[in-house]
Amino acid sequence: MGIKKYIVMILCISTILSVSSCGNLNPSSQESEESVSQSQEDIKESENSFIMPDFYGMDYNEAVIQYGNCIQFQENGHEYSELESGLIIEQDIESRSEFKKGDVLKVKISKGAGTVELPNIVNMHAELAKDQFEQRGLECEFEYLQNMEVQKGYVISTEPEVDATVNKGEEKIILYVSLGVDDAE
After folding, report:
1. How far is the C-alpha of 122 from the C-alpha of 178, rounded, in Å?
2. What is the torsional sign of CA 125, 130, 131, 133?
3. Same domain membership, residue 99 and residue 17
4. Phi/psi at 2 (5° precision)
5. Of 52, 43, 44, 59, nearest in space to 22 by CA
6. Which of 39, 58, 103, 161 could form a disulfide with 99 if both were Cys (CB 3.0 to 4.6 A apart)?
7. 79 CB-side CA count, 13 A
8. What angle do CA 85, 96, 84 make, to 5 degrees?
9. Residue 31 lies in a domain
10. Is residue 183 a part of any domain in this protein?
11. Closest Cα to residue 116, out of 174, 43, 183, 169?
């Protein structure tokens, strides 16, 4: 084998290894063969041109570790979704489209489940009830009402009602809090 052929072979192998580090996630054997074939075509076009993987459902940190040498990841917000917290739910460059090494990929990351069932906090002190809601990722506000049956500072009811399922971050829960018995009566 001549020295030129040996150098060309070394360059091809190193380029293929570079491209495969930006390749598809967990490809099947058929996809792997297609990926190698696709990678070889990409090498002919440009040494820095790759095909964008589909990151939907992949852990953000794992994606950065695995693909950070080819793609510059940028967080583009967090949102509640059906996927677990920390998983990528959206990317701004379509999968299977071409990108150049070092291109910025903006991704949105899941905050986890977006719904929660309201706990029964009726007859609980308003501040304790608020803490329970905040621990579940819910916002709430107080509205005060006269009430002869519930002690001052305790929750009379909520809106929506207890045991309802609500979307985190989208609804503000109203806690109706007792002012106690009206002294004027």
Report:
1. 11
2. positive
3. yes
4. -75, 160
5. 52
6. 103
7. 11
8. 10
9. yes
10. no
11. 169
Given 83, 110, 137, the domain boundary residue is 110
Q: Do 137 and 161 share a structural domain? A: yes
Distance CA(95)–CA(88), nearest Å, equals 13
pLDDT at 62 over 60: yes
What are 90-105's pLDDT values in tens digits?
999 999 999 988 899 9
CATH code: domain of residue 96? 3.30.10.20
User: Residue 12: pLDDT above 80?
Assistant: no
Which residues, 6 or more positions from 34, have their beta carbon under 8 angstroms from its beta carbon? 27
The two tokens of residue 162 are 């207890």
- pTM for the model: 0.48
Residue 185 maps to a domain: no
Residue 82 DSSP code:
S
3-class DSSP state of 20: helix
Residue with tokens 């996809």, as numbered in its chain:
31
Contact assessment for residue 72 and residue 86, using Cβ atoms and an 8 Å cutoff: no
Structural domain containing residue 99: 3-110
